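Predict structure. Chain length: 359.
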Amino acid sequence: MTDDVPLLGGRYRLGSRLGGGGMADVHRAMDTRLQRLVAAKVFRSATDELGRKRFAEEARILAGLSHPGLVTVHDFSADEDELYLIMELIEGGTLADVTEAGPMPPEDVADIGGKLADVLAHVHGNDVVHRDVKPTNVLIGNDGRAFLADFGVSRLADAAGRLTDSGMVVGTTTYMAPEQISGGDVGFPADVYALGLVLLECVTGRVEYPGGPDAAVARLVRPPQVPYGIPARLRRGLLAMLAADPARRISAEQAGDLLSGRTTEVITPIPAPMPAPPRIPQQRVQRPPTQSMPIQPQPSRPPAAPIAAGALAVLAAVVLAVVLWSESDETPELAPAPGSPGLERLPADLADLERLVRG
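Prediction complete.
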């Protein structure tokens, strides 16, 4: 490359093309000011002043993100004739290159999935949605580290003159969430679903929903086939990440905790129940106040014990007399007591009575 080739932004000398898509090309480039290699993503569409302003706002948001697993944005331009991003250059390949060789060991898939989910959680925490998570956007460095690239590119593309056709869904159909296919709201859960499909492809060695209209509709009628026999943390994570209903999908933070083994169980969100109808208060019946009744003092009674004892003694005497009377065959005759009636005869009468009782 000769020195007379115009520099991008008067600073970056473009080198070989590393890749690209329908809206931009990525080149290896040299930052002539800092003398370091970078990656330059050059957009191929011009835009109006409002679009350039939006592009600059989105680029500043991406440039403010910092995470060990995120491809850092160093610089950008939103000029009329130059629209580009300058990013950290990752020497190596992509996750797509790795999966072409066949299924990856499940433990390795769980490890890389946990790291990528942590990156998603960090960016979601800064209110940025990726919208296009796929194997070619996962860079694998020569040292084995994984990086997630192209965050917010769809928003940048929209700002850069609406590069997509009107009504076209932004993203790669193969890894879209059901709500993207059906034209619903696209938010953080869509990124979690896409990452789940990427990890599922890594562990099975095949694309779950190949591109095309039929495959796009397929995820609306059947769930992804998560295999048995893989580590529990990976299976639980994939099932929770690939829930069809975005409201029941776990967050990126929860996915990172589950896949990395920091937790063994994650409670999936449950949609809030419909609010109960308001209760109509019932009219309370007014009741007259309770009036206390005065307690009349009871008259004192004689002790019951002496009375009962006396009655018992009389009853015993009568019973004894009847028994003795019934056992006697003859009616005893009492001899007349001598003396005149009155007090003088009382001792004799008592003696006769005693003799009669004793028989």
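Summary: The radius of gyration is 51 Å.
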